[in-house]
């Protein structure tokens, strides 16, 4: 029997708020270069961003019945994350379901299959990250799992993990690591601001990045 389960442990709003200011790239680097989903999964519009707890769902390829159930049971702010076997030749989500998501206040969709109606999705502004764009329709046949751990974009995602996305891609931050990752991300941004200030003050890339000892150790010589 298939059961619709809630997210077992939701991140605190404070944890989501701590992570939200940072880009996926910064978060990926800050947590030891972990958590980046496959670069093949991209937003249908570069202006789209998302950040929220993962509401996970597994779908059979070319079948969106479980996605529709996920939309029905997800909470406002949830990011629906769909594992559908990296099947590119299906348009499992479009403007009609996007309107359903907006009406519920859902925070976004991440899927390793295809979507369609991308012009309308851009106009609606609902954040959609997908593996492909495909016009081919889907069936509603196979019942699977909701809010179990899934693999999407090569990353294991637990329900309640924090998903962050922007024009560059997606990253997952473990719910119980959010506060530590946020502190590391802030430290990274502070350091990068210092690098930029040094460049503007006239320092070279070699000086700012302290590359001279590295280059010497590798036998690199400059003849300019």
Automatic annotation (TrEMBL):
It is an enzyme of class 4 (lyase). It holds the Pfam family RraA-like. The keyword Iron-sulfur does not apply. One of its GO terms (molecular function) is metal ion binding. The keyword Calcium does not apply. Substrate binds at residues 94-97, 116. Keywords: Lyase, Magnesium, Metal-binding. Its EC number is 4.1.3.17. Its cofactor is Mg(2+). InterPro entries: RraA/RraA-like, RraA/RraA-like_sf. Mg(2+) binds at residue 117. This is 4-hydroxy-4-methyl-2-oxoglutarate aldolase.
């Amino acid at each position: 029997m298939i059961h619709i389960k809630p997210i077992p442990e939701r991140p605190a709003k404070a944890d989501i708020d701590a992570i939200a200011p940072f880009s996926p790239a910064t978060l990926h680097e800050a947590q030891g270069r972990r958590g980046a989903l496959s670069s093949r999964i991209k937003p249908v519009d570069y202006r789209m961003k998302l950040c929220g707890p993962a509401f996970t769902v597994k779908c059979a390829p070319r079948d969106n019945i479980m996605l529709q159930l996920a939309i029905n049971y997800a909470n406002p702010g949830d990011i629906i994350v769909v594992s559908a076997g990296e099947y590119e030749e299906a348009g499992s989500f479009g403007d009609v379901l996007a309107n359903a998501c907006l009406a519920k206040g859902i925070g976004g969709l991440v899927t390793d299959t295809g979507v369609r109606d991308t012009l309308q999705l851009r106009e609606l502004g609902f954040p959609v990250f997908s593996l492909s764009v495909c016009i081919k329709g889907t069936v509603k046949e196979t019942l699977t799992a909701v809010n179990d751990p899934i693999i999407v974009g090569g990353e294991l995602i637990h329900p309640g993990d924090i998903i962050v996305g922007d024009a560059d891609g997606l990253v997952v931050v473990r719910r119980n690591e959010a506060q530590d990752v946020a502190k590391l991300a802030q430290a990274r941004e502070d350091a990068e601001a210092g690098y930029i200030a040094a460049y503007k003050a006239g320092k070279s890339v070699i000086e700012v990045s302290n590359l001279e000892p590295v280059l010497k150790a590798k036998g690199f010589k400059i003849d300019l």
